[in-house]
Amino acid sequence: MCIFCEIIAGNIPSTKVYEDENILAFKDINPVAPVHIIIVPQVHIECANDINAENSKYVSYIFEKIPEIAKSQGIYSYRVINNCGEDAGQTVKHLHFHLVGGVQMGEKII
Ligand code: 5GP
Ligand code: ZN
Q1: Residue 90, Cβ neighbours under 10 Å: how many?
Q2: Which one of 15, 49, 59, 102 is CB 3.0 to 4.6 Å from 35, fit for a cystine?
Q3: Nearest-ligand number for the alpha carbon of 4
Q4: Residue 80 pairs with which residues in a beta bridge?
C-alpha cells in the first residue's frame, strides 16, 4: 500500500481536515505555507497520467470541494498544485493536490 493509502486506511495517523466517501484532505507533514493541505481521492490513482473517463469524477469532485476546504482553513485565496512524475517532484505515487495558502505568494509558479 502507498503512504496515502495507508493514511486513508488509518494505518498512518494524519490531521484530517475533510473526509467523505470519495476524498480525504489532511495537513501536509512538512508544510511550505501556513495552510498546506493534501487532498487525495480515496481510490488509488498513481498520478495525473492515469486520469481517465472512469476516474476523472474524483478530480472534478476534489475541485468542487476545494472552496469548502479552503474556507474551513480560513483562506479564500490559494494555489493548487499537482506534481506528476519524478521530474515534477512527485514523491508519493498517489494522485494528490496541494492546497497552499495563508501567505502572499509570488506571481511565478517555479
Ligand atoms: P509530492 O512531492 O509527491 O507532490 O508531495 C507529497 C507531499 O506529501 C509532501 O509535501 C510531503 O510533505 C507529504 N507527505 C509525505 N508523507 C506524509 C505523511 O506521512 N503524512 C503527511 N501528512 N504528509 C506527508
Ligand atoms: Zn495509494
Answers
A1: 17
A2: 102
A3: 2
A4: 99
**In the structure grid, which three cell numbers stand for residue 5, read together?**
493509502
For the stretch 23-73, pLDDT in tens is: 999 999 999 999 999 999 999 999 999 999 999 999 999 999 999 999 999
Give CA–CA dist 84/81, Å, rounded.
10
Active site residue 94: no
Beta bridge partners of 40: 24
In the structure grid, which three cell numbers stand for residue 89, read together?
Answer: 517532484
Q: How many Å lie between the centroid of ligand 2 and the Cα of residue 96? A: 10
Where helices occur in the chain by DSSP H, the ranges are 3-9, 56-72
Q: Specify the amino acid at residue 27.
A: K
